[in-house]
Amino acid sequence: MRPVHLLLMLVVLAPVTGCLGGGGGGSETTGTYTVESTMASIELETKSADYQDEATVEWSLDSSTIVGDIEAAGGHVVGVLFSLTYGEDETSGGPLCTGGEDNAPDTITGTASKGEWTLSGSGENPGSHEVNLTWHNASLLSGVVEGLTKSEIEDQLAFGEDALGAYNLAITVDAEAFNSALCSHNDEGEEVTTVVSLLVLDFTILDEDGEALTSMAVGNGSLPVFLFAGWIFPVVFLVGYVSAKQRDRFHLDLDFGEPETEVVEGESTSDGETLVESYRARVITLSALYVAQGVPWGFITVTMVTFLAAEGADAGDLAYLLTLGTLPWSFKFLWGPIIDRFQVPALGRRRPWILIAQTGMVALLVTMLMVPDLANNISLLGALFFVYNVFTALQDVSTDALAVDVLQSHEFERVNSYMFTAKSLGGIIGGAGLGTIIGVVGIRGAFLIQIPILVTIMMVPLFMRERPGEKRFPWDEGDAVEKAEDAEEGAEEVRDFSVILGNIRTAFSVRSAQLGIVVSLVISLAFILIPILPLLFLQELGWTQEEFNVTKGGIILVVTMLGAMAGGELGRRFGGKSVLMFAALSASLTTLTWGMLDSMWGEGWFMMLVWIIHTFLWAIVSICAYSLMMRVTWAEVGGTQFTGYMAMMNLSAIIGYQLAPIFAAQYDYQTIFYIAAVLETFVILAALFIDPEETDRTLNTGV
To answer: Is 169 in the same domain as 90?
Structure first.
């Protein structure tokens, strides 16, 4: 690579350096604060029952039955109020009793517990008493708080998931009755009326000037919109001029589809049990494997991020989690040579790697279930997400290699559309699906539900075979080993690492292929908004987790699919580069407008509309960029080169995530939207000078 290109990459990648530390923005300091709060009592149960002498009766109640009331009252459960009321029911025990005897008092003990928090209290009948079990630092609610950061105050008032779920109650009655030489009473127990309520805290932290502090790591700085418009509108004029006067020079009318060649389409049949024999088996297997990739992707980017935002995470926390979840995808191209070089032909070329990847995914989900207090273990959670996505990226590469191996040439376009749709369906399951029920099952329940989903999908590659003669299991009989050994000698040279590296070097010697690196590295820089949007919607605008999850994990994914389909059709009609440029420019102007109209952010219909428009436009940009990268890819190293471009697009997303807390620490929401609008124009400038036919013209003709 030429020095100028290396320098360019170093400049673009520089923001990543040193940004992969643990969660949290690291910008908080101790100060002088006050806490403005209200406490609500929400009833869980009222009942009356008889309790026998010297018998302890235990039962449990669950917060899931009143989750809506909890959210409406402030969302922070900080205690259980267990109220007990009881009378006196001694009965006369003999004929010498006059009725004037003093009734012996019974002792009624109530116990409330939640996890490690437990409190007991006793009283004597007739009367009542309360067991007021609380676990927050009540001293913070009165007077001035000094020597703590905002997060430290929140940690002592908001306990998130740990305060929800099951609450254990118990009653023990120690009955006593009047007893003398002439008269004795009977008392075998006591009737007790109990009321169990949850104490829910709603609080706001105020600075020393009495202004409310939000949980978001966003600064107060702002930059005027004309500074950004001064960049964007010249790009508008540039796109207009090139489109009107220089279409041929910049190849704006070129269809990014495959070059026209004489292709004799074969017949897709299902006359067989293996993937190479059955079209139905190919579609079901590849689609199922892409669902398995979409579920964790939707869960991480939607459900998990939204949960953490609701728990008070800041932009640094969310960016850290998204970064470690995306990082393995940025280096997934390293798997390509490994899975090509090391194979077990008797069990299938790709199938063993797919099973290894899925086993690792399930094992990591089980491990995440064991992490205590997820909201306060961002660093550990991020590390586990990293390893989890190492396995997910391995499955992605192995699945793509399997598709290349078993699909017939005329099936690529159609089956790829099925695979893309399947991944989006998985994303909807992991995002809108799990995100909608998280209020009922909790975050751990959302983790748990994914395990049977992935295990069920794992049954597909476990019982399928790629080719006739292969084994499903090592102990089965098969003749694939002999067939593989016959073909192995001729394949050794092709799979030699030095040959592969030489071809890759040749592929990237073309100027347009090098510019493809730039396109890939800038296309997702505007992802600075992804860690910001959950904070804006949940913590500022008051959306619930369920509302945000259904929107981002459901509606937005459907719009993404529609945009991708529209992008392909528009590219064929009006030229791939032309559509890419106009869609990117329109998306940039939409983002700029989104930031300018902050007075409309409180209107749900407006936020939905502008989000949908932007998503649709950027899906068009993405699909056109993918097609452009295909056109500048050399067929000799097609899989490796194109996977490299996709990996760099993921790296671009990571850079965007890491820029988010940097900008959020300095600027307000409006300015962050303006910055994202500018970043979205970079892909226009990077793609403008790419000649989509240069690779074919230079390398395939030997010129």
So the answer is: yes
Mean of the pLDDT values across residues 587-610?
92
Question: In this structure, are 332 and 449 located in the same domain?
Answer: yes
Residues 379/384/387/388 CA torsion (nearest 10 deg): -140
Nearest to 405 by CA among 359, 493, 339, 479: 339
Residues 222, 670 contacting (CB under 8 angstroms): yes
Q: What per-residue confidence (pLDDT) applies to 24? A: 41
H/E stretch holding 378: helix 378-406
Which is nearest to 526 in space by CA: 603, 594, 427? 594
Phi, psi (rounded to 5 degrees) for 107: -110, 120
Q: Where are the alpha helices (DSSP H) in 299-334?
A: 305-310, 315-330
Three-state DSSP class for residue 48: strand
Q: Which of 36, 271, 58, 323 is nearest to 172 (CA)?
A: 58
Q: How many domains does the chain have?
A: 2
Give residue for tokens 């149960």.
45
Strand, helix or coil for residue 2? coil
**Could you tell me which of 618, 613, 578, 579 has the C-alpha nearest to residue 593?**
613
Please enumerate in sequence order all residues whose Cβ is within 8 A of that of 92, keeping only pairs 6 or more positions apart, or say none.
99, 183, 185, 186
Tell me, letter by letter, the H, E, C secondary structure of 184-252: EEECCEEEEEEEEEEEEEEEEEECCCCCEECCCCCCCECCCHHHHHHHHHHHHHHHHHHHHHCCCCCCC
Single-letter code of the amino acid located at 281 = A
Is 9 a domain residue? no
Q: Compute the average pLDDT of residues 572-589.
A: 86
Tell me: pLDDT of 589 over 90.
Answer: yes
Domain region containing 570: 226-258+281-398+412-474+506-699
Per DSSP, 342 falls in state S
Q: Give the helix/strand (H/E) hosting 433.
A: none
18: DSSP letter:
T
Amino acid identity, position 540: E
